[in-house]
Amino acid sequence: MVYKTGSFEGMKSLNQSTILNLIRLKGPISRAEIAKITKLTPPTVGGLVNELVEKNLIIEQEASKSNVGGRRPIMLSINSSAYFVIGVYAAGEVIRVVTATLDGKITFDYVQKITTLPTKSEFLSMVKESIHYVLTEHEVDKKYILGLGVAMHGLVNPDKGVAIFSPHLQLRDVPLKDELENEFNIPVMVENDVRALVIAENWFGQGQGVSDFLCLSVGRGVGSGIFINNEVYRSSFNTAGEIGHTIVDVNGPLCRCGNRGCLEACASETSILERAQEAIESGTETVLVDWTNGDKCILSTELVFKAAKEGDQLARTILEDTGKSLGIATANMINILKPSRIILEGQIFEGEDNLVIDSLQQMVNQYILTNSSEDIKVVCSKLGKKGMVLGAVALIINKVFMPGGVN
Asked: Which residue stretches, if any, does this entry annotate as coiled coil (predicted)?
């Protein structure tokens, strides 16, 4: 991390942000060490640190020993449990609301399932009711809540806080920021779920200390988030990362967007189930016929993976093809952006001896152009099912640690 500083009054918020991040990354740390690293004068560091102590964002504790003898220095650490953040993850099947501390530890977790497609007003009511429930059950004083982050699937305008289009919910122009700020009188930030995941990975996951990486998220759909030069890339239209609608097979299956051969139509959980069901109905030999006994509701991605592990050729082919499609798309993104890491998120990437990951890695190895100095790793997210909602939390935490984030 480059610690940017300044010495005049207009740079105060930048200097304070730099000190706060330095304490977060290197704490416990003394005032003298901060002054040495940042090149700020000891009085400047002392004044800014005192303000952060008064705001209860950092705590002071005497060191256990002195390195040079004499008086033991006062060490500074982030006071992670002093404040809370509310995180909301809204997808096609679920609304998840959590409270978390500044180090990303979830202190309360509530899930409300979405069983039928709601109207815009019904959806907003569900979100508000879930947040009210969490505030009531957790008994959090609003003065200790720094903000409310929302990770929303689909196209999102983070500047206006509007969900432009949520395909799985079939909702357009949902004014989340305005509605939630009016309801709770708490600062609200809204972002696309995979871009929020990128921020969570940067703060708490496989993206820590990595300046350039790509998140590939696979569920009912396929999305990606792009992190370049220590920032999330959104584009001027706030739509960057729609890897699910890049073409991997011009003669492939029809996608919901109207095109053929989109990655989402070839390599999502939905496409896995559709291919398996079509094979069952066409009379293809597979253990899935006996396991489902003609009931579509029983068929699941877990069942397909189980069949593949038991040597079922149909299941193995479906998962290998899924990995190949994902690998081709990933290789293309690597050749264009050259991130140093690819982070895979989704249930289909879980478990050992994973056919999807093996096929994906094979395609990446075959099609990326690299030289000897490039080391591009493909890894799986360790955040698991809490990744998206932690992304919502990280939206607010990231804002607090940026210049001007401490008021």
From this structure: none
